[in-house]
Amino acid sequence: MKSISRNVMLTAMCMMLAVVSYGQEEADAHTGATEIIDGHTGATHKSDHSVLKNIASRLSIGGYGEAVMTRNFYSDHFNRYKYPEQHKDDDSHGQFDLPHVVVNLGYDFGRGWTMGMEIEFEHGGTESAVEVDADESGEYEAETEKGGEVALEQFWIEKCWNRALNLRAGEIIVPIGGTNSHHMPTEFFTCYRPEGEANLFPCTWHQTGLSLWGKAGVWRYEALFLPGLDAERFGSDCFVHYGATSCYEFKIANVYAGALRLDNYCVPGLRMGLSAYMGNSFKNKLRAAGAKYDDVKGTLKIAAFDFAYEGHNIVARGNVDIASLSDAQEITTYNNSYPKHSGQDGSPSKHQPIGEKALAWGAEVGYDLLGLSTSLSQEGRRLLLFGRYEYYNPMFEGTHKEGYKWCEKKRIAVGVNYMPMSGIVVKAEFSKRMLDSAYNDEPSISMSIAYSL
Length: 453
Known about the structure:
mainly beta
């Protein structure tokens, strides 16, 4: 909504003004700025030039954004999996989208203290307005002009003691899997983020918590303490994707979770990462479950491996993620016991069976044709032809697996990425999502332009 967007931006501006004020005090203490005495009041002022110079040296601005056009050559009907034969010959459909537009702000307070924040506008943000309708006797009318989301996706304060020891607290990225750890549009070839990890897990996964991280030699580590996910929001086709969201003004934390990530850089041009997550999810709600569910925990375990290699004009990336959820059948029964209507007794539950295990894996390889030209590569230009294959299944194992075979998907994509300079990429691809033989495959073409700073 416009009001939401304005409130978010106003909040950000207020925070930055607070930062600037603190920065000015730091400047007074450390830069020795020239003082000017006001003869009438005796107030002491600092040189604007020195204060602004100090602020500029401490402030950092970044971000990324994507604009995508897609034509899908399959039905967009919500029953296309339930009645595939009825929708086999439906018309194609197209869409334009702004998947993510993000503004990053950072500030270095000094003495190892820093702040970072990220404001994200998904799918163009939200737009709504209240208008006086001339055709309805001057009545006030609320009008929605555009969907989307606006979120403060990151906000943290960090203390750095040395290269090997840093502590971060606030809304932070949970680096489980390759996509959450490296989600900039210049870090994957396809127009949209890789589907497997993005569909099964929160993406970009962010929660309020604590993160201890550092670097030692060829290793980077990060250990996190977080609130557990919310099992009410799990589903058949999305597994735990929506579990980090909350419909309240706070995130319920009746249960907790831990995450760990290790990255190794021992081979030049190669990064290898291992990540793991474990936490309970069932009783992370305001409503008591009842004695019948006392032993239900909904323990979610995730193990993932991802890698990225760049060298000899080749860029290659890949991931393998496997997850398990205990008490999936009990959680399914409990979620289905909620009324489906909205209101006091309503629930955010999707009222769907939930898998006991989920699996996602994929790999992509690109070759830079312009890397064959020394002059063009020195100018920062790149032209990568790529191919990608991935498999993902949120119902890999579970009681209801046979009735949800459409959740198992394989996807191929081939295309090109052109980078006229570092930080900007133009993409084009053909992709095909392949389902069980009882369902219709889903081909599409997409084009996009993106940047990252």
